[in-house]
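Case study 2.
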Amino acid sequence: MEVKELGHVVLYVKELDASRRFYGEILGWNELGHGRGVAAFSSGRTHHELLLLEVGSEAAPIPHKPRVGLYHFGLKIGETDEELRAAIARLREANVPIVGMSDHGVTHSVYLLDPDGNEVEVYIDVQPAEWREDPSKVKMFTKPLRI
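Prediction:
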């Protein structure tokens, strides 16, 4: 077996409407449709990349770190700092909690929390033409983001 790509992420959510607003209106993901307790989103790359399943307000919250399980998932939003600056402005305008911003060498990343406390990374690729052609040029580190 060989994994070809990450296909999709499925999240349990307390309130479907709040999560639909976050992923659709705030992050700009295309909602394919929703029904009773479920909503699907895609960038157009595949049939769905995110599926939300409503479990209700009584569901147990995500435990605080340290914990085993998902740390975050990343969403590429472009390849320029201008795109990332616009995203940061949009997130702040929508009062989305930003929990970190990092320069990872190959990405400039902003970390935020969705309505249920799932951590999401929105990022831009930095100089992808260089490291896609020569994978030895991938140098990952973590520094404060200065854009």
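The helical segments are 16-26, 81-93, 128-133.
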